[in-house]
């Protein structure tokens, strides 16, 4: 199996992704207790829709960045079951996405993706295999970028699935445990969502696609 980091090096893309801004600007407590995330900047033709229960959908064709998703305020260890569709071109992800405070960490568990063409350097921390799949771990640093605490410098943690999928179970604690083995400490959990994200890579084009996701 070719490691994802080797693939990125071959493409000259070993850089990290878009950081999301303050959730207060894009997150609301949605239907049936779910937290609904809807944020975009610098783009057009982005539609993020809050469906019934644990469902949401997104359609986009944009040069800007966006995050559209649904989950839970409070975050933390969760077993997330989801199903749906995800079809995209350009830079973007389908991922479990969340934040912690003290330390301030933005984290991703990538389930599927179009182009991995991020905007800061990634550092590989190796691979791990659990019953839910094989992943490569990365870290990256955002300098003076928007966060849930305003403009800050903070780390990003990434688990990137080797074989992409749309639908299944994500046990976040299994990733937290693997990150901890690598010295990647988390803080107090703020929120976590199953999210679709798109953005524009440095010097590149935007993204386009559609997604319809339901939390189980």
TrEMBL record:
Pathway: Glycan degradation; xylan degradation. Gene3D superfamilies: 2.60.120.180. Residues 22-210 form the GH11 domain. The keyword DNA damage does not apply. InterPro entries: ConA-like_dom_sf, GH11/12, GH11_AS_1, GH11_dom, Glyco_hydro_11. Its EC number is 3.2.1.8. It catalyses: Endohydrolysis of (1->4)-beta-D-xylosidic linkages in xylans. Residues 1-19 form the signal peptide. The active site is at 106 (nucleophile), 197 (proton donor). Keywords: Carbohydrate metabolism, Glycosidase, Hydrolase, Polysaccharide degradation, Signal, Xylan degradation. SUPFAM superfamilies: Concanavalin A-like lectins/glucanases. PROSITE patterns: GH11_1, GH11_3. Belongs to the glycosyl hydrolase 11 (cellulase G) family. PANTHER family: ENDO-1,4-BETA-XYLANASE A-RELATED (PTHR46828:SF2). This is Endo-1,4-beta-xylanase. It comes from Podospora bellae-mahoneyi.
């Amino acid at each position: 199996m070719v490691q994802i980091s080797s693939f990125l090096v071959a493409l000259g893309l070993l850089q990290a992704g878009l950081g999301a801004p303050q959730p207060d600007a894009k997150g609301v407590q949605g239907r049936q207790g779910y937290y609904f995330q809807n944020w975009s900047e610098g783009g057009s033709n982005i539609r993020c829709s809050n469906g019934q229960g644990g469902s949401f959908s997104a359609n986009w064709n944009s040069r800007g960045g966006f995050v559209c998703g649904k989950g839970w305020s409070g975050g933390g260890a969760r077993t997330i079951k989801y199903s749906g569709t995800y079809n995209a071109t350009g830079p973007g992800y389908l991922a479990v996405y969340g934040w912690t405070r003290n330390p301030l960490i933005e984290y991703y568990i990538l389930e599927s993706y179009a182009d991995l063409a991020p905007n800061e350097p990634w550092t590989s921390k190796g691979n791990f295999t659990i019953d839910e799949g094989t992943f490569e771990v990365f870290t990256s640093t955002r300098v003076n970028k928007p966060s849930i605490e305003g403009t800050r410098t903070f780390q990003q943690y990434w688990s990137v699935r080797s074989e992409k999928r749309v639908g299944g179970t994500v046990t976040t604690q299994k990733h937290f445990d693997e990150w901890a083995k690598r010295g990647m400490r988390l803080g107090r959990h703020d929120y976590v969502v199953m999210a679709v994200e798109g953005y524009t890579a440095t010097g590149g084009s935007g993204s386009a696609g559609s997604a319809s996701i339901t939390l189980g």
